[in-house]
Amino acid sequence: MKIHKTKNTGQISVFDVAKIRNDFPILNQKVYGKPLVYFDNGATTQKPKIVIDTMSKLFSEHNSNVHRGIHYLSGQMTDMYELARTKVQNYLNARHNHEIIFTYGTTASINTVAYSFGEAYVKENDEIIVSEMEHHSNIVPWQIMCTRKNAKLRVIPFNDKGELLLNEYKKLINSRTKLVAVVHVSNSLGTINPVKEITAIAHENNIPVLIDGTQAIQHQKIDVQDMDCDFYAFSGHKIYGPTGIGVLYGKERWLNEMPPYQSGGDMIDRVTFEHTSYADLPFKFEAGTPNYIGAIGLGVAMDYLTGIGLDNIQNYEKKLLDYGTANLTTLNGLKLYGTAKNKICLFSFLLNNVHPYDTGTMLDKMGVAVRTGHHCTQPLWEHYKTEGSVRASLVFYNTLEEIDFLCEALKKIQKMFI
Ligand code: PLP
User: Domain span at residue 31?
Assistant: First the structure.
C-alpha cells in the first residue's frame, strides 16, 4: 500500500499505482511535449510489458501453426494455445474447456451466435430482445439475422440515469422470444447492468441469454456459472491483451446444437465432395488458422490481472470513480451522462455548448486522450436527444492526479470557449 496525495482530498490510501504504471511502457511518454494522460481505455487498454515481451518471444523462438504439425515447434505451440484456452476457462469459471471459443473479438463472437443460433432456432415472427444501450455490434448482427428470418428486434428501454427498466423488460418477454442479448457494462454510460437478474428472468421463460462482456471483464470478476448466462462475449484488447483475439463462451448444450458459422480448415472431421462432418467443440467454431499467439498473449494478460487481484483493481477503480464524480460535478456547465448507482469509472459528458470534438481536440493538445462522438451507440444517444459525448474511461493504471489534470484542463477549455 502507498499513501497517495491529492490536491482536493488530502490523503487517500491506494495500491501502488506508480509501480503498476511501470509495467505499461507506453504510459511513460509525452505527447506534444506534455505527459500522456490516457483516458481512452474504453476503446482499447494498454499492454503490460509481460504481454508484449511474451508475444515477441513467441514470434522469435516458438512460432509454428497449431493443431496440424507433427514437429516439435507445432506441438509446443499447440500445447500453449490449448493452455491459453484453459486459462480463459478458469478466468470465467466455465464448466468445460471446450466451451471457450477463440474468435477475433467481441464483434466476431456476437456475429457467430447471431448467425448460428439464428439458423438453428429462429423462425418467422420470432423475437430477439436487446437493450437501448447496446453497442452497434450487439444490434446490427441481430438486425441482419432478423431480416434474414423475418423476425423482430425488441428493445429494453433505460431511464435518464442510464439504468435498464426491468419491468419493461419483463413485459417484452413472450412465447415468441428466442434470445435476450444485453450488454454487461455500457461503453457509453458506464452502467453495470444486473445481468444475473436479467438472465434469471429470461430463464424462467426458458429463453437463453447472451451477455456482451466487453467493458466488464477488465473491471470485475466474472463467473459465467454463477451468472448462468448462455453466451458471454469479449475482446482481448480491452483486457490488456492483444488485438485480433476474442472469446465466445457458450454453454456446451447450445454450441453442440448450433451449426458452424464460418467453415474451412481446422473445423472439420472428414471432407468428401458429397459431405462434410464437423470437428467436435471447440474446433467446430474455429475455422482456419487461429490467432494462437494472440490467444497466448490474452492468457498472459489474465495471469497479470489475477496477480494484481481483481478485488484490488475494483476497489482502486471505485476510488477513481468517486473522486472523478465529485470533482467533475463541481464544474459549472458540465453535464454528465450515465449516473447509474452501479457503474464503472467512466465519465461521459458535454461541456456547456462546446462540441465534443472541440473539447476532445483541446484535451488532446494538453496531452489527454479521450474519445468523442457516439461511441458506436447511436440509439443510446437518441434517448438523450444528442449526438454523443466526450468519454473519459479510466482503469487501474490511471491516477487521482490525472483526474485533477483533466478538471483543470476542462476549466481552461471553458475559459477559451465560453
Ligand atoms: N461491445 C461493447 C460494449 C464495446 O464497448 C465494444 C467496443 O468498444 C464492442 C462490443 C466491440 O468490440 P470489438 O470492436 O473489440 O469487437
Answer: 2-49+309-416
